[in-house]
Amino acid sequence: MKRLFTLTICLLSLQLLHAETNTINPAKSFTPVNRVTKFNPDAVNADTTILPVLNQSLPLSTYGGVYKRRLDSIRKDIQLDYNEYVQAYIDLYMHNREEMGQVAGLTKYYFPIYEKAFREAGIPDEIKFLSIVESKLDPNAVSRVGATGLWQFMGTTAKTYGLNMDNYVDDRRDPIQSSYAAAAYLKDAYQEFGDWLLAIASYNCGKSNVERAVEKAGGVTDFWSIRQYLPAETRGYVPAFIAMNYVMNYFNKHNIVAQACNFSIRTDTVMVKRIVPLSSVAQALDVSVREITILNPSYRMAVVNGSPKTPRRLIIPQTAKDNYAALYNVLNGVDAPVTATAKPAAYAAVQYPSVKSERHIPTHHKVRKGETLASIADKFGCEVSDLKVWNHLKTNRAPVGAMLKVSVGEVAANVQDDGPYSKN
Fold first, then answer.
1. What is the tens place of the pLDDT at every residue in 91-102?
2. N or C: which end of the chain has fewer CB within 10 A?
3. How many C-beta atoms lie closer than 10 Å to residue 290's C-beta?
4. How far is CA 134 from CA 146, 159, 183, 350, in A?
């Protein structure tokens, strides 16, 4: 009987220990993280450049309460939950201090572009941090499966949302065009799922994978409830997004210093209506070709392939007035020598002469799926209000297939101030 009693006690102890192991807080049971990036061939935007898959969660930090309060304080339209999965990515990103410092510096140029696109599309501002998870703010980033640009669009998805790809141009690399396309995708996803975290998850693995996960979870539309049914990379994608919100808001609390950009962040826009090599533009402005190509990453052959019918956007660093004549000659094909002037010590605000009404050439554009009035206006250098007046539109909706008038007066090269994209 004594032996039986002893055996019973031992078995009971083992059962209790097993139960405790299954319910214990991960903070109390740490095992090393196997940081392996897994390939998911079914993902729309999978294989991101900065998203390793953490197969196990890290223990909650001793300062978990601080992290949670900070996330709560920056929450706007998207829930920023704090848990061990989010903590794992916070720790990972904070460990890459130099890289995060570089990214923090790049936000000064790219984030105003995102904010304008998102504001006009009506999606939350904080989604801009998703681009860091996708590409580390590198417009030339290309994943192993071919996802390209700041927002890592695959070719098929890019075409669906109005991005052009040909021998001359890859709009996936264009910060402005790709931001409007990303906004359109995320807005569509939110309208389907009614939850921003699920919309963000679908950006990584595709809407169909999220739909299947919701179905397996019994119809609930909460990321943490369906997480176990999502592809491996996507399980970490949303926690990584939340972690990046924290890192970019509080990097200075962790002794990370934002590094200065190695290119001018004060820019102007030029609408070009002829073939112009970027090297000629660089020579006229007395800047390096490298700087011009950084500002215009979508031109595959380092040539702006504009035409009177389809003008192309060229981003240039703000420059001294002494360079206006040389720039005008290059953009208009004038046979005049390009004279270089001394590069100004600092980029000051520039007021370009108005040349918008020299020739009147009405231009039209056929609306493609995924385009909005805002993206069309930005593409052709006009305002949404202009498009509505010229086309007698009462709403901000761009009817797919409609032929819209996008200009009533153009010149061979229209130089204009960048407006919202100038960082003064």
1. 999 999 999 999
2. N
3. 12
4. 13, 19, 14, 34
